[in-house]
Each structure stands twice: as C-alpha cells, then as structure tokens.
Amino acid sequence: MNQPTEPKADTSGVRRHNLSLVLRTVHEAGETTRAAVAARVGLTRPAVSSLVEQLLELGFLIESGKTFSGQAGRPGTVLKPAGTGPAGLGVEINVDYVTVCVVDLTGADRVRRTERLDNRSAGPGEVLARAARVAAGVLGEADGHGLAPAGAGLALPGLVSGGTVRQAPNLGWHEVDAEDLFAAALTSLRPETAGLAVTSDNEANMAALAELRFGALGDLRTFVHLTGEIGVGGAIVVHGELLRGAHGFAGEAGHLVVDADGPRCRCGSRGCLEQYAGQAALLRAAGSRDVDDLVERAAAADPGALAALTEAGRMLGRALSGVVNLLDPEAVVLGGIYPRLLPWLAPAVSEELSARVVSGLWPPDAGRLRPASTTTDASRGAASLVLHDILTDPLAYARPS
Amino acid sequence: MNQPTEPKADTSGVRRHNLSLVLRTVHEAGETTRAAVAARVGLTRPAVSSLVEQLLELGFLIESGKTFSGQAGRPGTVLKPAGTGPAGLGVEINVDYVTVCVVDLTGADRVRRTERLDNRSAGPGEVLARAARVAAGVLGEADGHGLAPAGAGLALPGLVSGGTVRQAPNLGWHEVDAEDLFAAALTSLRPETAGLAVTSDNEANMAALAELRFGALGDLRTFVHLTGEIGVGGAIVVHGELLRGAHGFAGEAGHLVVDADGPRCRCGSRGCLEQYAGQAALLRAAGSRDVDDLVERAAAADPGALAALTEAGRMLGRALSGVVNLLDPEAVVLGGIYPRLLPWLAPAVSEELSARVVSGLWPPDAGRLRPASTTTDASRGAASLVLHDILTDPLAYARPS
C-alpha cells in the first residue's frame, strides 16, 4: 500500500477529528476540491490543505488529474477517496448461503462472492469456517486491488448480542461465539488478519443499514425493512437510527403470528409469518425448486405459482398491518427475495394493508411499499460498519506499508 | 394568588433558564434546602438564594417552618414546590367516561372527577362540551385550593395530530378539531380561561407518560404500555421517550390482528385485539354488566367469568408476543381495566408469550408483565405535560394576582 512508514507526529485529538471531518466530507461528496471542503467544514483553506496532504500521504485520498471549478473559489484538483488501502470486509451468513464483499473508501462494493450451501447441515463451527474460507478467497482477490481489510462485519440470521448468536432458530444455533470462531478460522487461513476487529449484528439490521447508507431512499428515514430469506428478517429504522430494543433483539418480524393455529415454526410457536412468506415455505407452496423458477412460472401466469405468491402476499400484508399500526412508519421496504417477486406479492400485501391498518395511518401512496435497492444487502451493510469506523478515525487505520 | 404584580426586571435568558433549573430540582427532590440545590445544580449559594427568593415571591416555591440538615452545608429552611398557583389541567375523554384532574407543582393530583357516560351517543361537539363542563367544575374546586390552570392537556382515544383527532374508530370521530372545540366550550363556562394553551395527544401516550413520570417503574425506561378501555390503547416508550412514528400515530396495539377471520372491528378490519380484550368485548363474553361485577364473579370462581378472562388473556398474549418480537421491550405494562383483572388474565398472557416469543427475547421474570400504577392514568399524563411546561419556563407562567 501507498502509505508512509510512520503516522504523522501531530496526532492530537483535534487534528484526528479534523482528518475524519475532511475524509468524511470527501467520501460523502464522491469527488470535490480542497476549496469546496473548506467551505463545507468551516476550516481555513491552509488548514484543509494540510489535512488533505496528510490524507493523501496516508493513502486515504487520491487526486485525479482533472480540475473542475466548484462553487467555492478558483478551480482545483479533484479529490476522491482512494480505491485502495483500508477497506471494509462484510460477511453475511444465512441459512442457505454465505456472501462476502469488500467495500472500499468510496463506498463501492469492489469484490463480492456468494456461495450457496445448506448451513443447516453443519455445526456452527463448520459454518463459520466456511464463511472464513469464502472471506479468505475474497481477501486474496482484494489484495490484487490493493485493498486490505480494516475490520470485518458479520451479519447473522438470529438474535445477536455481545459478539454471540444467542438464538438462530433457522440454523438451530444457541449461544454461538460467532465473532471469535470466525476470527480464529480466518486467521488460520490468512495469518495477517490476526487481531482484525470483528463486529456482528442481525442480518436484517445490516440489510437495513445498507439500504440507509447506499440505497435509494431519498429523504425517507423512518421505515420498516423486511428481508425475505429462508426466514424473514425485520429491522426498524426510526429517524435514521436502528431501533434495537432493550437487549438489541428488536425487529423479529418473521415470528409475528399470522395464523395462531398454523404450522409449527422452528422458533417453537405456530403460524409465524415465515411459515408462509419465507423462501422455503413459499417455494414449497408453489412447488418451485428455486426463486428463478418461481419468477419464471409467475411471469408465465402459472396458477400454482400465482396462488402461492398471493397467499404469501396476504400473510405479509397481515403481519405488516400490525407493524404499521404499531410503528407508523413512512414506508415498508422489502428486500432479500422480495423485490423480484413484488409484482405478484404487492396486490395482496396492499389489499391487506388497506383493510387492516387504522385508516389515517396508511394513506394510499405507491411509494410506501417499496422494494429494497438491488445494490444493497446485509453483507454490504456489515462492511459499511467498518467503513464508518475508518471514516470516524482514519489515523487509527493508517498502517505502515 | 400569592404573586407580585409584575415579574422581576431581570428576565434574561440565562436567569430564566436558571429559575427553571432550580424549580425542577426542588420539584424532583420533593423537599430540599438552598444548599442542597446549589450542590446539585453547580451554582453558587448566593446565586441559588437569589433564584429561590424570586421563585418564592412568584409563588412557585414555599418554605416550611422546619429546618433539616442535608448532606451539603449547615441546616437550612426546607423548600418545597408550592401547592398553590399555576397547575396542570388534565382531561381524558374516553368512550364511556370523561376524567378531569388538576395536578399541582409538586406533581400531586389535587382535584379529580370522573363522569361515566356513553360518548358514542353524542357528536364530537357535545362530547367536548361535556368534558368542558366537567373541567369547569373541577377548576371551580381547584380555585378553592388556590390552584389556577396554566394550560390543559387533552387525552383522546384515537389518532391525534396537530390538535385534531384524525380518526377515533370507537367514537366514530373523523377530523375533529378537539383542542379548539374544547377551549371554546371551556371559555364559555369560565371566561377567565380564554387563551389557555391546550395540547392534545392519544390517551394511550398520555397514560404511558403518567406511568413514566409518576408510576413505580424504577429504572425501567423501555416498555410497551397497553390500556384496556372500550378500545385497547397502546404506547411504546424507548429509553424514556415516546416512540411516535412518522406521523405521531404509533402504538395502535388495539388493532393488531389476533384472528384474521374474527369479528368485524369498528376500524374496518377483522379480529382486532380489542374485539377480544377490550372492555366491551370482555364484558359481553363474560355476561357481566361492568368491571366490578366481572371482578366479583372472577373472585368467586364463576366459570363464565374465568373463561372470558382466559380467552381475553390468550388474545392479549398473542398480540403481545408480536409486540415483544418486534420491539424487544424490558417490560409490558398493562393499565386501564387490566390491573384489577390481572390475576385472571396473567396466566394465559404469560403462556402465550412463552410459547410465541423467540426464546432469547423474553426470559421468564415476574417483573416483565406488570400492572400500571394505580395512581397513573391518561388525565394525569395530560396534566403532566402542562406541569412540564411550567417547570421548563416558570417566568412564562408567573401572573399578576
């Protein structure tokens, strides 16, 4: 990497803070000039120039050859976040796949790999080792792009707190030290990752974070985010912040009861939403082998596929009516397998919402039930946590080359 | 009232703020000394003495004859919030009653009156005029205690925003300017209340506020509060703040679907919680004429009463399992008619919660399902909003006698 042997001598609190301020400003702008940064953050041109020089030296920023005239001052060289150097490693472990991605300082998803496999057939240790294998492969490729992980985010399908999966009904996990197991497995494959900080959270929270940071939500800041996987994950975002509840477990929308006497769920209850609108239940009801097949049959107006989608939509709408009555969100965002299925799910979802939400609460408006962006997922949300850490204190991530 | 003709000349922002700080400190302590206040707020003794003198003069504080030695400095005269002067008027309009109370600066509920009557049989204007009549009577009595309303809080059973009831299914109200109608009716009965500030909110939010400010919750700051009335109201408190949602309508727990094909609800949906656990539904199922009768029969182990309560508890538990899965609260607080009925409701509620909440989320613990305090209700919460305003800027409420 393109970095000096030692961090600068001046590492006082104020300068660290200002380095972060400048780096975040360039990150948010995508590309900008020193003059525009100075105008934005309220520091003098010389102060900003000194900070920018250090960030260039440390490899967090790059200059592009072109110049352009921003709104503030004379034309300047264009500054951009570096596409090399410290990056976020994002890992999503779900019931039937593992996805790993590396996000660079621009926020771009640079390397990405998904491995489909049934994680229910193996113990937690083996599943986390699998995830580490995929991650090691992705990091090898990232190496080639000059990207090195500054930390890892781990998205997991269950109740997560303090680095541990307390409960993951669909995987049959109970009290699994996921962060430690993953870190150990990764270090055994890539010893240079020893000591890498790993942060974990529920995959639905991570997916909602990705939507918030990289999606197309515009001004929308209070929403409920449901992800259709084998299970159905849920996350609640209020004024741009995840609602975590008293113990960090809020959002378990997949286990909302839609039919009290319905089929037994792995959580121990009966008639949970995911027994109707989860991927496994939906494919079984439709008699489809996978989501591609289901989409193809629905597009061809196959009655079995359409009936299964309508029923799933009805149950989704029923559960969501409770969520909307309780939380009064601006919108409901559907991710995971749902965006591709929305043309056939949406009518039944909307019908239930209209019938069951207290009327002032859900005025009809096309934008209120919406698909998640195609470029966001839980692994990207997980990587964004690392990105956030780098942007908050870049000096802590400046390493000798 | 015991107040000077003119407020003090020195009404700068800092002094106003410090007057509030001192008054709030005395309010929270109940009784204290100048020295203890100075130690608490970090101002000098002379500064605090000057502020206290002004608050005494304006009638917000009183001195009691006794002295006591606090932890800071020499013994001092005891200071208390006045039991006379500006007070909060709280008004709850519900489906089958109106309750009005006046809360003084100590937080005590000094005058209170409930009138039972069917508010569904009259239009909104008449109901608000009824409430104003009860309020006028209560204010007459408060007068005798030297208490004058500094504002009014209005608790209403529906979706409330901007002073208007958008929708109150159980009253059949739609877009009712409740604040204006109430203020006009009250002014016609007591002309001296002309210009009185009126604030309105959902009754369930007001009840949760009362629980938070005057209840016995201890350190508990993240909870869901359900009030059993004709309807079932809900409020969500996260880290000590009401969760209001995007439009202020969050918490409509009474319309959570517990049986999708159940009886038609006034909200337009079917099988809403309040069709099973609301007061009207519960009394009908039990064949009881009122809650007293139901309690008496349940205590005598009457099978019809017990069966109705078990079924209501089962539906409450079913709805609450969704709420807990979604919000991960520390506790569920049941108010309204529920505290008296809890001995017979609780077993079924707890059974459903154990069976249906994702397991890590609701560890068994007696304190997690709890009755609301007997001294809190929506009218007291409504009055507490006024109290909060007075404590935040006492000078604004200092009036010539």
UniProtKB/TrEMBL annotation, chains A, B:
Superkingdom of the source species: Bacteria
Signal peptide: none
SUPFAM superfamilies: Actin-like ATPase domain, Winged helix' DNA-binding domain
Pfam families hit by this protein: ROK
CDD domains xref list: ASKHA_ATPase_ROK_BsXylR-like
Annotated InterPro entries: ATPase_NBD, ROK, WH-like_DNA-bd_sf, WH_DNA-bd_sf
Family to which the UniProt record says this protein belongs: Belongs to the ROK (NagC/XylR) family.
Protein's name according to its UniProt entry: ROK family protein
Source organism per UniProt: Streptomyces gulbargensis
